[in-house]
């Protein structure tokens, strides 16, 4: 009998973290893995979660180790082929290749969230059915602490309660993680599992996702249709701050798949005040005279959009505790719990690091399981020690790297550009003194988040010193001229 036969794993959440962890553990030889997911099926369409992910070198560490990167690439548009067409209200169009891509870095891949989830799920169904069962339509209601074990209480679609007592419990259940809340309640005084929140100018931005037909018309002209692999930014005719809007469409590989347009704007924007589908329809008609809106947006879609809740970018946050052990799980007399992905760090999507940092969590957990030969009592404390510094750095990077990209404040956006290009230029000529902006450094998956933050902080200090020297020189020259 192998080491894993008697042990069982429960993973709460079948998002990228949960399914990625299930595959990683199954590949290591763990059996008896149950994933609890409340959505009805792997292909269940959640319009407000139908955004696109960019899987970069960091996320690919896990997909490489699962031999899935080629399949990810097949489903994606590579960032090296990223073209953006800007369509202005006066109908003029400009297509450009995405700048700020470092050709030295690993190619990153754009694919819809749903396709990543489907890819992981299909892999489970095809190769790991003996080790992993995914229970869709099943909600984890409560986690009870009973002596040295945790009891997971779930309820399925047919109201059947299922109770599980795992050796290893993975919290892959996202921002409002029940697993984390359980850990928090279990600690009397410590704030180990309480989310620490850090302000950012992009948190609180509201978003909704519009679903558009594949290859939708761009004008009344015949054959003037959108290309699935091209990204679009469709600018509105409104110029006032609280009425102006942009439809942002990321590229999709599959030409027959519906496109999605993200609408991201401030909480007090005019669009969120519109309460009826008629008002929303009229607003879109006036905002986008350059495209045939009535041919693109059905009444049903406008209605769905009007009444959908949408979402709000979360405040950057993390908790410093990521594990807890009850009893002796390695002797099958206890439960070890670990939090991964959004359950432990969550932030606005400014840097496209949500899913990448989550997949990197799983990869690092895998590395440590290898080092410790899957001994949980050893692996979990090592994981916390090794990952904590990077999680903290990541949250700081989200705060400082590019929170002004949503046009909240034009002055701040311009200052950001000055800072960005100053760092780029200085780092080209004096690379031993200055580093490029953290927004560029983040593309380098070989640098950890804490290494990126150190480089960024060092450059900030150098720039400040340079600024002080320039001011002193100006003052001195003015004094000498007198
Ligand atoms: C608008 C927006 C755009 C984004 N864009 C990007 C991007 O471009 N790039 C990027 O890297 N990241 C992006 N992100 C962030 C990214 O989506 C998350 O970081 C990522 O989904 C984290 O994965 P996860 O599996 O940890 O959590 P989730 O994806 O939140 O998955 C958690 C899963 O757990 C399930 N669940 C929760 N509680 C229970 C329960 N009690 N019982 C059963 N099931 C439960 C949920 O249904 C869900 O399926 C974006 C986020 C938003 C909001």
What does this structure look like?
The radius of gyration is 24 Å and the shape is globular. It is an alpha+beta fold and 482 residues long. It has three domains: 220 residues, FAD/NAD(P)-binding domain, CATH 3.50.50; 107 residues, no CATH class; 72 residues, no CATH class. The mean pLDDT is 94. It has 14 helices and 22 strands. Helix 7 packs across helix 9 and helix 10 runs antiparallel to helix 11. The chain has a seven-stranded mixed beta sheet, covered by helices on one side. It has a six-stranded mixed beta sheet with strand order 8-2-1-12-21-20, sandwiched between helices. Flavin-adenine dinucleotide (FAD) binds next to helix 1, strand 3, strand 9 and helix 10.
Give the helix proportion (percent range).
Answer: 25-40%
Structural class: alpha+beta
What quaternary form is this? single chain
- What is the annotated CATH architecture of the largest domain? 3-Layer(bba) Sandwich
* Overall pLDDT: 94
> What's the total number of strands?
22
Report the CATH superfamily of the largest domain: FAD/NAD(P)-binding domain
- List all distinct small molecules, including ions and cofactors, that are bound in this structure: flavin-adenine dinucleotide
Instruction: Give the neighbour order of strands across the main sheet.
Output: 6-5-15-16-17-14-18
Biggest sheet, open or closed, and with what strands and sense? 7 strands, mixed
Number of domains: 3
